[in-house]
Amino acid sequence: MVLKIENVSKRFGSFTAVNDLSITIPEKEMFGFLGANGAGKTTTFRMILGLLDASKGKITWDGKPIDYSTSSVIGYLPEERGLYPKLKVRDQLVYLARLRGMNKQDALAELKIWLERFKVPEYLDKRVEELSKGNQQKIQFIAAVLHKPKLLILDEPFSGLDPVNVELLKSAVIELKEQGTTIVFSSHRMEHVEEMCENLCIMHHGSPVVHGSLKDIKRSFGKKNLVIHADFDLSGFDNYPGVTKVKRTPEGVHLQIEGEYVAERILKDIVGKGFIRRFVLEEPSLNDIFIEKVGASYE
Amino acid sequence: MNNFWIIFFHTYLSKLKTKSFIITTIITVLIVVGLANMTNIINFFDKGEGKDTIAVIDESSTLVEPLQQQLKASNSEIELEAYKDGEEKAEKAVEDGDYKGLLVLSLDSEGLPVATYKAMSISDSASVTAIQTGLQQIKTQMAAGKINLTSEQLAKLYEPVEMEQIALEENAKTAEELNQARGLVYVLLFVIYFAVILYANMIAMEVATEKSSRVMEILISSVSPIKQMFAKILGICLLSLTQMAVLLGVGYISIKRNLESMEGGFFSVFGFGDVPVSTIIYAVVFFILGYFLYATLAAFLGSLVSRIEDVQQMITPMTMMVVAGFMIAMFGLSQPDTPFVTVTSYIPFFTPMLMFMRVGMLTLPAWEPILGLVILLVTIIILAVFGARVYRGGVLMYGKSNSFKDIKKALQLTKSEK
Fold first, then answer.
1. Chain B: nearest CA to A291, how far in angstroms?
2. Segment A2-36, tens digit of pLDDT
3. B11 and which of B186, B235, B270, B285 could share a cystine (Cβ 3.0–4.6 Å)?
4. For domain A3-218, which architecture applies?
C-alpha cells in the first residue's frame, strides 16, 4: 500500500498553491513534510484526503484514488484544531469514529485505552470547552487515530504542547508507525522531523525544493558546520575563502563551511596561536538546510 | 450503519437534548395550554375582584332603575348604588376607593338623559362603554315614547337588513366555509412562517458552528459534504416535526377538554369545529416543502460564514423573503383572488405560504397547486445541487467571508479542472 502523488498541481484562479509535486511514500513509513507558512502543505494534505481536486496529476493510495469509500482507513489531524465545544469527549469521539466506520462499543473501548495512555481518563465525560488547549489537542489526536487508520496525516501534531506532552504524543506516533501505519506529517520543528522521519520533502512556494532521504539530503547539501572554541582572537573569518557564514558566540565562533577541506585549512592556520578548547566538524542540521533553502528568499 | 443515518440521528438527538430546545418547547407548550384555558384563567382572576360598584347621583331619580336593568341584561358586572349625600362627598368616597367611579345623571331641557362620569382615572373604557350603551337604550326608548312609537315599531326600525351571499361558481366555498377556512389558513400560515424562520435559522447556526469550531475539517474528510448537508437538513426536519407534534398534541388535548366552555367563542370563529382534510394535507405538504427550500438555502448560506456572529447578517435576505411572503399572504387573506397574489403564488420562495393560502381560501382547479408544487420541487432540487457545491467549497473557506462574492469563490474551490 503506497501513497503516490504524481505530478500534482493545484491552482486557485491565477495563484498556484502546489506546483508539479511528485512524492512516493511506501507503507509503514513516516514522511516529513516541511515548508514555511503558505508553502502549500495544507493544500497538499487536502488533496490527499480528496477534499480538493488536483488541477493536474493524480494521487493514489494502494493504486486507487482516495475518496469517501476509503475514509475508514485514513486518519487526519488538521492544523486548525476543532471539536464540538459543547459535546462531551465521549459523545464526540464515538460519533467521529462511527463516521469512519467503527462501531459504538469498539470506539468507546478504544477511546478509554487512549485516554488512559495519555493519563487523562477523567476527561471521558467532560465537555471539550472545559479542557485546556493542550488537552484539547490530545483529544483531537485521539480523534485522528481512534479508528486505527492505515494512512495517518498529521498537520503540525506537536504545536502548542509542553515538552512532556510532546514526548507522550511522539512515542504514540512512533508506536503507530511500528504497528504499520503510514504517516505523513508536517511540522515547523525541524528536530522532530530529524528525529522521526527517514524521508522528507521541503516545500517552497508550492514546489518541492528538497526531497529525499534525510541522509542523502544532508550529504548533498555539502556544507558543514564547524565549531571552534579557543582562548585567542577568532575574528577574521568573515572573508576567509570557503566560509559561508559566521556566527560569534561568547566562547568562540560557529562557522558554516563549504566542505571538509576548509576545516583542514582553518585548523592549520590556527594551530600554534593558542589553546584550542574545541574544534568540531558537524553535519548540517535540518534547521540549517531549511533556512538555507527557504529562508534565503525572505531576506 | 450508513454515515448518512449516523449524522441524521446525531443531529436529531444532540439537538433534542439541548437545554435551549427543551426550554423553548416547554414555554411554547405552556403558552398553548394557557391560550386554550384563557376563559378559565380570566374567570379565575375576575372572581377575586368581585363586582364594580359605582355611586350614582340621580337628579331625576327615574334613571337608576332602568339603567341597572339594562346593565344586567348585557351581562355587565357593574353595580349601581344611589348616593344621597351630595356630589362633593361622593367624589371624596371615590378618592378613598369606596367606589370605582361617580355617575351623575340628569335630564336635559327636552327631558332626555345626560350623564357625567367621574373616576380616579378614565383608562377603564369597558365600564364607561357599558354605561353609555345602557343609557343610549334608555334614551332611545324615552325618545320613542315621546313620538308615540311602540316597542314593536322600535324593534322593526333597528332590525338589520337580510342579506345572503351566494357564490355562483360550482363547488365554490360558501361564506360560512370561507370564514372557517380563513381562520384555519391564518393559523397555519403563522405556523409555517415561524417554523421556516426558526428551523432554517437553526440549520444555518449548526453549519456555522461546525465551521467556526473547525470540527468541519474532520467531518468533511470522513463524510461527503453533500451527505452531511442533507442528513443535517433531515435531522432538523425530524426535530421540527417532533416539536410540532408535541405542541399540536398538547393543543388538541387542552382544546378538547375546554371545548364546552369555548363553544361559540374564539375557536368557533377560527373554524376548528370542522376542518377540511384537504386543507390539512396541503398545509403539511407546503410546510415540508417550504421547510426544505429554506433549509437548503440556509445550509449553504451558513457554509459561507466563518464566524457565528456573521450568520444573522448572511441569512437576513432570506428572512426578508419569508417575511415578504408572509405579508403578501396576510394581505391576500381578505382578497385571495387578486392577480398580484395569483402571480406571486408561483414564485417558489412565496409558494409555500401563498399557494397554500389560495388553496385554502379559493376553489382552485387542481392544476394550479400542482403546478406551484412542481415549480417549488424543481427549485428545491436546483438549489440543493447548487447549494451542495457551494457548501463543499464554502466549508473550506476561512477568513473574512460574508459577502455573496464568496459564492463564486466557493464554487471555484469545488471545480475540478480535469
1. 29
2. 888 888 888 887 888 888 888 888 888 889 888 88
3. B235
4. 3-Layer(aba) Sandwich (3.40)
